[in-house]
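User: quick one - fold this with alpha-D-glucopyranose bound?
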Amino acid sequence: MIRRYDFGSPIHTGAVVRELAVENAAVPFFATEVQEGRVSFTIHMDVDDLVFGLGESLRGINKRGHLYRAWNSDDFSHTENKASIYASHNLLLFSGREKLFGVYFDDPGAMEFDLGYTRGDTAVITSENGDLSVYIIEADSLTAICKEFRGLIGRSYLPPKWAFGYIQSRWGYSSDPEVRNVVKEHRDRHIPLDGVCMDIDYMEDFKDFTWNKKSFPDLRKFNADMRADHIRLIPIIDAGVKQLKGYDTCDVGLKKDYFVKKADGKPFVGAVWPGRSYFPDFLREDVRTWFGGEYSKLMDEGIEGFWNDMNEPALFYSEESIAEAFAVADKLRNENLDIHSAFALKDAFNGTANNMEDYRRFYHEVDGQTIRHDKIHNLYGAYMTRAAAEGFRRYDSSKRFLLFSRASFVGAHRYGGVWQGDNSSWWSHIKLNLQMLPSLNMCGFLYSGADLGGFSCNTTEDLMLRWLQLGVFSPLMRNHSADHTREQEVYRFANWEDMRDILTVRYGLLPYLYSEFMKAALSDGMYFRPLAFDYPTDDVACRVEDQVMLGSDCMIAPVYEQNARGRHVYLPEDMLMVRFRSATDYDLTPMEAGHYWIELALNEMPLFIRRGHVVPLAKPAEYVEGIDFTDLRLLGWLDEGVTTTLYNDDGQTTEPVLESGLTTITVTVEGENVNARGEGLTLNVDDVIVGE
Ligand code: GLC
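Assistant: Sure. Structure tokens for the protein plus alpha-D-glucopyranose:
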């Protein structure tokens, strides 16, 4: 059951697709206070209460005990003290002995989530603008609450099947021969690969929808050659449009008045990669239609996937903020700088980036109203994603395109996926990657993943390998790193063969992973879940922060500590451990419920399959199109027969129907004899263990 409560004059954010009548009564569960335009919602938390949600945000799966701020921020340093990163997913789930409900705050402006930070037993959620809709969601389990919520916000984005392949990316690839070489290095060593991201250096002077004709002289042929080798090129598009006369996107945007404006009616100018830039008003439908159409310049060359970036929007400075910084510098020139003035000088320049004052300098047109940017800040990236997705649909409505964004808001999950932004090559960020995945799923973002190996800082061989072992399971599996960091393509490392072998596990499991993803997407379900969702009465499971459930049959528990030769794992029920070294080299250990120390050499990764379930494994392939989805080995620990379903489709149909993609697999057990059948499938049961 979902009930809606309104405060102030909420604007239509697009997060929700079902129109619910507004209740007259007070919001249940919370004490509500309206003060000076702000609205706050206070709730007492019992000692055992758990708090889940907030999608892409820092810290643990259980969000209790810290302060979070909904304010999409370009922040490349994901440290524990940060309250905001790139997304605002304002869903919370409260679960305890006395309470079980979800609450969604549909508010496009800044919000504060004090979840036991000021007082350990109290959560206070504050809307700074006071214009919002609050949805209270009740059902009899955490999983059921999320399903209700997902029904409210609409079906998740469906990527093409090839987007589940391994993708190599690096900021710095800047020419056709360089990218071809990256592909060749993979193919020569039989390292699986399905895509290469093209970062900002493919563009001409960082201009959206252009490419450098010197370094990419024939993009169409380049792309066609790559496609022949089963590789997709995935260019980046940034939110800011370079200010330059004679650059078509800029000229048209100015002529048609498509950019956000200041109070004086002049277009707002802020700087990003190309220097001074304009920012499309994505909240306007005509602007979305125009900008979404611009992608066709690259799609005409054969491109089938994009990533949208810098769409918080990130601002290095505005004309105003940089002028103020220079004024400070001019004043201090030739001074003897002391503790105060030296810091004032530094702060003047550091403070120009993503400056709050700048976010108050420009306006959007929303349904005929002029709204200052800060009031709807968190929608900007989501509406860029929507512009792109709608453009793709107009371009070819029968085809699924790959799209993932950095900034997002609930609602954008219908149009594209997200990556977790600029993480670092830190061990703690493997764990953070894991912890964000189920929270993102709660909010509808199923297609997601982090920069494997870490974006900032220099990676190490062991970090890369361990991170790939988690990446095997994340729908977006992309190795991405920043310019000037240690090169981290798999083939750069002495132990690349171990990395290649781990990648074969991804391709071997892909029929299963794709199936579980599509089942989740098409039924408003979750691909990743915290253990608390599946074992709500198990107090230990409810607090596990470094293992998550995957699909209906599995649990994952990656190693995320340097020099570890294993890890502690908690099994809430009997499970079969598959210790993978590659898709063809693994061992099987049936394990009863309980606590274990599990040995895992650097080249080994575990998958835990629930007793009574089977998971299919395909023969390894070097690209998704090469996987035989019909020739499968079943892995499992059974006491009796079982039936399961496997979803598959052509990977590109835009309106797939769950039922028509399902094949039933029936496994029978008679004594020691196991048999399995499924229409159109060849099934090997040698890895199905029976009984004790
Ligand atoms: C941003 C993106 C990062 C990208 C870089 C250059 O930092 O988050 O992924 O590599 O910009 O485009």
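One thing worth noting: The domain at 2-153 is CATH 2.60.40.1760 (Immunoglobulin-like).
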